[in-house]
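User: Could you go from structure to sequence for me? I need the amino acid at each position, not a summary. Structure tokens:
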């Protein structure tokens, strides 16, 4: 176990490490690319072109800062394998996905192709790349069979998922388990330490995806219109994007230094009382933007099903990795609002992002 409070990534570990990162043009992948770049890693990114305009990838100049940026689809197994083999990475982070619940109702086939077969393609590429020591597969808290009960989900709870997105993430977890046991740890096989990581509802600057709470509110500020909210009472485990990323980086380190203890599933969520209704987060964002954000409720009887209650149990990561959340919900919302307001004012998104990473790194674990 790591020393108490030492839950941040090690610059000494990441210096000159070769990293292959799928999904680097997305929100979480963009932040992870910036953090790895700051730590001195050599990052090769593989992803579709940015799905939104604007995007964190473009505003922060991520393509010019990492070693190599490749635009490609993880459903193209041959191109993906060739890119990974050329990069000769030590560590693989798999973040590329179709990440939107409502979009999965519109395009269930594409969602399963990307989130399940895309994951299989990543693992097959790893099998064909001898340099890889470890893999971190990023799934979702929605991978669990959600009974909407009051207690939080633990890593050993059943996989499931009502909607195609959630279900595809449960499938990706089962694929991860099968590849770990069949190909990456079986007798006579090349040993690759493989872990899956599951995070809660992530907020932070640079996300412009549709049908996400904070991006919708920011678009409302830009247009001068109140944001329409469908489910203000839904409870989610809210956390700043840097929280789970710190966990992913920690798991990746431990997969190399202690693979037998780490090659399994891990939850990374907030403290229990930061799992709150949507309306609480909205009130905080209104305050953090000085009243510029506005919202109202509009019920939609035709809207597809989305879970109303979801919590994560993070006791395993706390006890076995020494990981602790740093920023409480109020800080997470304040820093998110500060990032967006700076962007709306035309300030340097790269500088703002690095400043937030540095502030997060210097924050005491478990005391924020």
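Assistant: Here is the amino acid at each position, in order:
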């Amino acid at each position: 176990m790591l020393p108490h409070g030492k839950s941040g990534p090690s610059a000494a570990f990441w210096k000159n490490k070769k990293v292959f990162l799928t999904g680097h043009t997305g929100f979480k992948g963009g932040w992870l690319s910036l953090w790895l770049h700051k730590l001195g890693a050599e990052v090769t990114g593989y992803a579709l072109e940015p799905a939104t305009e604007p995007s964190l990838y473009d505003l922060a100049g991520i393509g010019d800062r990492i070693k190599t940026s490749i635009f490609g689809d993880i459903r193209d197994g041959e191109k993906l394998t060739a890119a990974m083999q050329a990069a000769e990475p030590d560590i693989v982070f798999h973040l590329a996905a179709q990440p939107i619940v409502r979009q999965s109702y519109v395009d269930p086939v594409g969602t399963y192709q990307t989130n399940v077969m895309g994951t299989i393609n990543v693992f097959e590429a790893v099998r064909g790349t001898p340099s890889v020591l470890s893999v971190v597969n990023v799934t979702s808290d929605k991978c669990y069979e959600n009974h909407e009960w009051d207690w939080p989900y633990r890593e050993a709870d059943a996989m499931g998922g009502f909607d195609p997105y959630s279900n595809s993430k449960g499938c990706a977890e089962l694929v991860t388990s099968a590849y770990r046991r069949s190909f990456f740890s079986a007798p006579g096989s090349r040993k690759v330490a493989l872990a899956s990581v599951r995070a809660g509802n992530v907020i932070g600057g640079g996300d412009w995806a549709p049908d996400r709470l904070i991006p919708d509110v920011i678009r409302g500020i830009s247009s001068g219109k109140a944001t329409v909210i469908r489910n203000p009472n839904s409870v989610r485990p809210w956390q700043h994007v840097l929280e789970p990323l710190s966990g992913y980086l920690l798991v990746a380190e431990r997969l190399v230094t202690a693979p037998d203890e780490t090659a399994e599933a891990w939850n990374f969520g907030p403290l229990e009382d930061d799992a709150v209704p949507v309306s609480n987060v909205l009130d905080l964002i209104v305050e953090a933007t000085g009243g510029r954000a506005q919202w109202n409720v509009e019920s939609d009887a035709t809207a597809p099903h989305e879970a109303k209650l979801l919590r994560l149990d993070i006791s395993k990561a706390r006890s076995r990795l020494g990981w602790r959340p740093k920023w409480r919900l109020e800080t997470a919302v304040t820093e998110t609002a500060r990032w967006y307001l700076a962007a709306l004012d035309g300030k340097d998104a790269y500088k703002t992002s690095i400043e937030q990473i540095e502030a997060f790194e210097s924050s005491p674990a478990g005391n924020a």
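One structural detail worth keeping in mind: The chain has 15 helices and twelve strands.
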